[in-house]
Specification:
The chain is of the alpha/beta class. It has 2 domains: about 140 residues, Urease, subunit C, domain 1; about 300 residues, Metal-dependent hydrolases (TIM Barrel, Alpha-Beta Barrel). Helix content is about 35%, strand content about 20%. It has 17 helices and 16 strands. The strands form 2 sheets. Strands 5, 6, 7, 8, 9, 10, 11, 12 and 13 form a 9-stranded parallel β-sheet that branches. Helix 5 packs parallel to helix 6, helix 12 packs across helix 13 and helix 12 crosses helix 16. The longest helix has 17 residues. Bound molecules: guanine and zinc ion. The site of guanine has 11 residues, from helix 2.
Length: about 450
């Protein structure tokens, strides 16, 4: 039995989908909660006054005053190899891919480069309170080994996979259908289910895979139950037109993935900005999820995701929030929520704070079919948590004094919050990041020091 970790402070967790139920029935807020963790799981969560008496006298309780404890944030779609090109001037998606992305991704033949980039990526993620991500690596299996090896040191639950790509990219980044299949199977055997690691079969997007590779990709996914499939769909208008040219027999972009057997539970498609009603219906019926990537869509000028259409109660599609770094511009899911709100506003839909926090926690877990393990604070759930400091910056502390209820407080926190707001991150019950300790130059995660 491992030791017990106990933390005390205000805590918030979602138990149901506020897009489909009355908001007040969807969350649990405890103004003074005690959360007790052991063996990587939450073993008690409730009002401190009721639980504190059950703790053995020698257990130290860490108090987080003027803070809010949440389930760790979940990022449903992100590219760790692109960490070094965040904020590269890109004009639009296809230009940005050619001029920056495909150049950066060629460096991942080098094992040291892959490990160092994975460390920076994971350090920045946990510094923002993100405890799970669905990650695109590169075409080179070294990039996957490096990522999972670094994530394993932190005992993190992540989904990751080797990019499959056999056309329309530089020759150095291409595999073949057979190579892609064999390398994917070998990586699944090496990593899927090892500790908390989960494998995501990762065809980059329809334009970079031949029909033969699309078929073999579906085969390897179906032959390995419990694995994921992640890709991109309908991010920009020119990409949609290109897909139409490449797959003239398919009805639309989603139909390309349907045609090759790539939709279903545990399939997560990034973006979905230009989807039709028929396409949303097909995603709903198949149980496929969309990763909404607001900072990326704004940065590349890709378009405005239509949240109200995606969550239409007649045929709701699972949606989770995502950074899509390096086209996305910020590791912080608070910043990402803020931008999601603005995109929704421009679509005539006012995304409430509760809806936004849901999308970055339990909603994201549902999109990843992991809501029985992560995304909520409850007894039996894996103990991944973030502690947010309500006075992380002078203006945030000042503004908080002028809020009068939980909803206002949450909204201000996502509007003014960023990486500085996370003051501690717990993974599987262990504190892996403390802002105060880092400020005092005692970097809390020695394994993430970069050479
Ligand atoms: N579509 C295909 N590849 C990518 C990528 O790396 N980033 C984004 N944003 N879109 C893509
Ligand atoms: Zn992406």
């Amino acid at each position: 039995m491992s030791s017990i970790t106990a933390i005390r402070g205000a805590a918030l967790s979602y138990s149901q989908d506020p897009f489909q139920n009355a908001v007040e029935d969807c969350f649990r807020y405890e103004a003074d909660a005690l959360i007790i963790m052991q063996d990587g799981r939450v073993i008690a969560f409730g009002p401190a006054s009721e639980i504190v008496g059950t703790l053995a006298g020698d257990v130290e309780v860490t108090r987080y005053d003027n803070c809010l404890i949440l389930p760790g944030f979940i990022d449903c779609h992100v590219h760790y190899p692109q960490t070094e090109i965040i904020g590269a001037y890109g004009k639009h998606l296809l230009d940005w891919l050619q001029n920056y992305t495909f150049i950066a991704e060629q460096k991942f033949k080098d094992r040291d480069h892959a490990h160092n980039t994975a460390k920076v990526f994971l350090r920045e993620s946990i510094r923002c309170g993100t405890t799970t991500s669905a990650v695109f690596c590169t075409v080179d299996p070294i990039s996957v080994d490096a990522f999972f090896a670094e994530a394993q040191k932190l005992n993190m639950r992540n989904i990751a996979g080797k990019v499959l790509m056999d056309r329309n990219a530089p020759p150095e980044l291409l595999d073949t259908p057979q190579q892609g299949y064999d390398q994917t199977q070998a990586l699944i055997d090496r990593w899927h289910g090892k500790g908390r690691a989960l494998y995501g079969v990762t065809p980059r997007f329809a334009p970079t895979s031949s029909p033969e590779q699309m078929e073999m990709t579906a085969s390897v996914w179906h032959q390995n139950p419990g694995t994921y499939l992640q890709s991109h769909v309908s991010e920009t208008a020119s990409e949609v037109a290109w897909v139409k040219e490449l797959f003239p027999a398919c009805r639309n972009y989603v139909d390309v993935y349907a045609h090759f057997g790539q939709l279903g539970e545990r399939c997560i498609l990034g973006h979905g900005v230009h989807l039709s009603e028929d396409e949303f219906a097909e995603l709903h019926e198949s149980g496929t999820a969309i990763a909404h990537c607001p900072t990326s869509n704004l940065f590349l000028g890709s378009g405005l995701f239509e949240m109200s259409m995606a969550v239409n109660p007649r045929r709701p599609v699972r949606v989770g929030l995502a950074t899509d770094l390096g086209a996305g511009t910020n590791f912080s899911q608070l910043v990402t929520m803020n931008e999601a709100y603005k995109i929704a506003q421009l679509r005539g839909y006012a995304l409430s704070a509760h809806h936004a926090y849901y999308l970055a926690t339990r909603g994201a877990a549902r999109a990843l079919y992991l809501e029985d393990k992560i995304g909520s604070i409850a007894v039996g759930m894996e103990a991944d948590l973030v502690v947010l400091d309500l006075a992380a910056t002078p203006v945030l502390g000042y503004r908080m004094q002028h809020t009068s209820n939980l909803e206002e407080m949450l909204f201000v926190l996502m509007t003014l919050g960023d990486d500085r707001t996370a003051c501690a991150t717990y993974i599987a019950g262990e504190r892996v990041y403390s802002r105060e300790l880092q400020v005092r130059k005692e970097m809390f995660v020695p394994s993430l020091q970069v050479e």
